[in-house]
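Hi P.,

Sorry for the delay on this. The queue was packed all week, but I finally got your sequence through. Input first:
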Amino acid sequence: MVKLLWLIPILPLLGAVINGVFGKRLPKHVVAGIAAGSVAGSFLISLAAFFQMLQLPETELPIVQNYFMWIQAGRFQAQFGFLLDHLSGLMILIVTGVGLLIHIYSAGYMSHEPGFYRYFAYLNLFMFSMLTLVLANNYLLMFVGWEGVGLCSYLLIGFWFFKKSAADAGKKAFIVNRIGDFGFIIATILIFWTFDSVDFQAVFSRLENATLFPVETLGTVGTVTAICLLLFVGAAGKSAQIPLYVWLPDAMEGPTPVSALIHAATMVTAGVYMVARSAALFDHAPGALLVVAVIGTFTALFAASIGLVQTDIKRVLAYSTVSQLGYMFMACGVGAYAAGVFHLMTHAFFKALLFLGAGSVIHGMGGMQDIRKMGGLRHHMPWTFRTFLIGSLAISGIPGLAGFFSKDAILWAVWNSENYGKLLWTIGIITAGFTSFYTFRLVILTFFGKPQYTEHDVHHVHESPVSMLAPLVILAILSIIGGYVGIPAALGGHNNIEAFLGGEEAGESSAEMILMLVSVAVAFGGMGTAYLFYVARPDLPDRVASSVHAMYTILVNKYYIDEIYNVTVVRPILRSSREFLWKFIDTGIIDGTVNSVGQVVRATGSGLRHIQTGYVRTYAGWILFGGVLMIVWFLR
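Then the structure:
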């Protein structure tokens, strides 16, 4: 099965080609079957390869399959090859497993869409790109997958291209990601210039030479630190960190299953995976690690605060995604890469569950997304409610569910960090309280209380079909059991995923237990506050909003970041493009030069045409005049 690694990304690519070329003429159930079947094949091969890898001794890992020489130019060489180790093995299971469930869900959710075949072609192409990214054995091939998921996100977010907001959101995602991608490609060039290779194993093995590549002390910016900072610029774009997070909330304009796929298990986690894959580089650049930790922590708190007041069911989850990604980078920034990837895995389960649950609500409500106009839906959509509640408990860090274990692993690692660990932990705890509050605010307003809609707004609220509910149930189960691979020593367990990914548990278990209790208390505190605000004292939200009107207005308007970017970046670029590039360069110089040449030719022709009189005597005179001029020229 290890030798069939190439089939893992190729099967979804074949599905994309078949549906893209022939899908318009095929029945919808055939299109969905081809798309989901190709991903199912990838999942089964990934599962078999994963278990085969587990049976191999550590000395035989990683498994590298080089298929052909892709690029060779002078000293530069890049193989087209795949690498399978514990990290990429776990990632392909997450991507194909969650991706398969989203494909199955999409068959029901998108069943009435006229662009059904096009949607599944894009979805399969996205899977191909993401699997190429995580299996690549060098930075250049990873960049190909990186760009592929960027392209597919543009196509999927703007799937309803006739809708201006969706088309704009797709363009915004594409452009913002290009900013991050510029950092990634410059980092790749620097990696080759420094290590004479872009191959992971070659780069990481050279880093082991402490004489050539010593650890760059905090406060210095050497070549490795510059590489890591540039890589993180790429990661910040793809994984929506400050200041490049602005595309992700707008990406909600795409179909809900797209939101689940992009924001749960695939595209936005690519940056976290890239940092974890580059751990050997980042360990040599503590300054870059500190930047990763600080940006991740600040992003987590910043996005969670915006989520407190959002009213669109998908936007609440979008800002939650930005916040949770910040948590992952917080872990990577303190060197706890295993904890970050652990949270990546559990987040894939419960965030996909929450997005698909939101899609089920939107489907049952006839397209309505405003949680203020919902209420009481647990009676009409019992299965959606139960599964959504499990996802909400998991993301809030309630004991016994997946999110509890991965969040605890991150906070414990951050607490033990030497660089501002206690400060980062405090911000992380505050963020956890915010997360619990806005999640249960969402649950209460959507599923509890009296219905806030009328029959005029929503004609018939109904539960979703089995094709949509089955993935919800599976993801709910994974959101419960997914964390038990990482039971900490403080609870009498052994953190298997830490050992699997090569991490180490830090500190004493008694201290971890105390911090764990604080975290749980904060989570329940957030839930209790949501209950107080929206059940016990429903008048409180308006009173609080009035008392802190300025802060509330800032949060509702998302700190006016989009407006600030529009004034400081977008408008100046548009103005300079219009006035300088278009009117001066394009129209004035390029078009002006071409038009001037044409005018000269036209004027010359207009003068010369008077010579063409049609009289032979005139022509003879001109010939005589020309002959005289030539004689004078040669006799001078």
